[in-house]
Amino acid sequence: MISYFANPSRFLKIAGPLALLFGVVGFAGVGWAWWTGLTAVPLEQDQGDLVRIMFAHVPAAWVALGAYAFMAGASFVYYVWRHSLADEAAKAAAPMGALCALVTLLTGAIWGQPTWGVWWAWDARMTSMLILFLLYIGYFALRAGFDDQAKAARGAAILCMVGVVMLPIIKYSVEIRAFNTVHQPSGVFASATDAVFQAPVYIAGLGFLLIFVSNVLWLMRSAVIARAAEARTRRARSRAVITEVTEGQA
Amino acid sequence: MSGGIFAWLAAQGDWASIWACYGICGAALVAVVVNGVRAHIAALIKRSRPSG
Questions:
Q1: In Å, how far are A130, A199, A233 from A247, measured between CA atoms?
Q2: A220 at the B interface (CB within 8 A)?
Q3: HSE-up of residue A229 (Cα within 13 Å, Cβ side)
Q4: B9-48: per-residue pLDDT in tens?
Q5: Which chain B residue has its CA at the smallest distance from A43's CA?
Q6: How far is Cα A219 from Cα A211, in angstroms, rounded to an integer?
Q7: What DSSP character marks residue A94?
Q8: For residues A84 and A235, what is the distance between their CA atoms, to the nearest angstrom?
């Protein structure tokens, strides 16, 4: 099925409508979750109103990690099979992944100040998340740092595949005692967490995921259109050169 | 003027932090959409250029 949709013309046909559908449903989901989170969710016993930050912070963190995992998978496919659409997929996932990593760091600091008393601590969870954000920045730098796009794509793919080691470190940084972090363990999926808090965070997470998929499809679609236009220009130029040479010989 | 804004923010208490987080997150989602539109327009411009 993947190879069927890896055909650029087939991909162009379905990517546009799917991207719009996912985008609209995703924004509707996030809108409902945030509205519910801000107006209907009761005060939490320890954090009071501050628990509402969870509905922005947690989905952003999920997408920051998920986008990087997706980029690593796409980079692997590109590196092994050299399929240009896989490289475009990795490239398309990077902007939203990086933005979500930045949002996670910023909202985490704003949440941390009133709850832990510090904006920032060099502990395992925060530092590993910062490293993930720097990996995203490194990815952009690598892509922009080479004139040869094939070299840039290969370098960026290697960075992605190596950097994926950060994902389990981030995930388990709050569960392994040796890391001694101030960040609380994940409680979103815990059975002790009331459904009234879980529902908005799940819906916001799903909304973020749909927006991410929509954005990836849309950016890939734009890249395929741009590549086709560039290829057409190159073909026209080479035809013009051949005509010039043959006319010169005649 | 800026003192007034900070005084207002301080008066909001926890809600200042909450609005700041939702503002940052919302702005990021808007930036994602703007980036998509920008890429699409750039691709359409490339496609509309005469190939010769």
A1: 61, 72, 21
A2: no
A3: 16
A4: 556 788 999 999 999 999 999 999 999 999 999 999 988 8
A5: B14
A6: 12
A7: H
A8: 19
